[in-house]
Design brief:
This protein is an all-alpha fold. Helix content is about 55%, strand content about 0%. The protein has 14 helices and no strands. Helix 5 runs parallel beside helix 6 and helix 11 crosses helix 13. The relative contact order is 0.10.
């Protein structure tokens, strides 16, 4: 059954959508997975808890589920992933100067005030019936400008990850299971591409690189911040009264 925290989403499935491609708890070392805080962990709750108390109240009591979904999307995937990874970074890496449409703040403010009934209201059948040229949704197509997800086995990227993600480097972080890395290195560069495995390598590669460059100490059970302390810190963040003394 869903937790009480998900009631704030008021029927929106966006929390589940946002965590679909995120790292899973399978990446973590056994000592973390065996903690009581991870018993029945639902990452959708993390999505809800990232929003302030007033926002969650609006989602629960006054906002339409579609508006709640749009708000959660705009505050996460749109800003962090789409506009960065699929737009600026990918385009600039290829020396492409692009402009993302429909992001003028005046237009955005106007659209935000429109009722749900006029948003995403057309079905494919309606579009086809109203178009003299036939089904526009078939003719236009959708071709995003994405970085490639298929890379050759033994190629430069594969060799880079093998160099970065050594057993020693992953173990030095203390909170990851190296067996997951080994499996991802096999799947990501197999004949049949595994996008989730490639994402796993990118996540862990970033963590390893940050850990080495900033000299982050190895995580261990003795230095673990317990669930009660995390809950207290989360509550103080929501209330705007956070202090380092909480943890």
């Amino acid at each position: 059954a869903d937790s009480k925290a998900l009631a704030d989403a008021n029927g929106s499935v966006m929390p589940a959508t946002l965590v679909l491609w995120h790292p899973t708890t399978q990446l973590f070392a056994p000592w973390i997975c065996n903690l009581k805080e991870y018993d029945g962990l639902d990452c959708r709750n993390t999505v809800i808890a990232s929003h302030g108390r007033e926002t969650r109240a609006k989602m629960r009591l006054s906002w339409h589920p579609r508006h709640s979904a749009q708000y959660m999307w705009n505050k996460s995937s749109l800003a962090i992933a789409l506009l960065s990874r699929f737009s600026d970074r990918t385009e600039m890496a290829q020396s492409v100067e692009a402009r993302t449409p429909f992001l003028d703040h005046q237009l955005t403010e106007y659209v935000n005030k429109l009722p749900p009934s006029v948003k995403l209201a057309y079905s494919a059948l309606q579009i086809e019936e109203q178009s003299e040229q036939g089904p526009l949704w078939k003719k236009a197509g959708k071709t995003p400008f994405l970085a490639p997800t298929r890379w050759p086995n033994g190629g430069p990227l594969h060799q880079l990850f093998q160099k970065v993600l050594t057993r020693e480097a992953v173990k030095a972080l203390g909170f990851l299971d190296y067996a997951v890395v080994e499996e991802a290195l096999k799947k990501a560069y197999n004949v049949k591409e595994d996008k989730r495995a490639l994402r796993t390598l990118v996540y862990i590669g970033a963590w390893v690189t940050l850990g080495e460059r900033f000299g982050i100490k190895k995580a261990n059970r003795e230095n673990w911040v317990g669930g009660d302390q995390i809950q207290a810190a989360s509550q103080s963040l929501s209330n705007g009264t956070f202090s380092s003394e909480v943890i």
